[in-house]
Amino acid sequence: MSDKLRVLIVDDSSVSRMMVKNQLLSQQPDWTVVEAANGSEALARAAEAAPDLITLDLNMPEMDGLEAAVKLHEAHPQARIAIVTANIQDSMRQRVQSLGILFVAMVDKPINEAGIRKILAGL
Question: Which of 4, 70, 84, 85 has a CA that sits 20 to 30 A from residue 96's CA?
Answer without folding.
Answer: 4
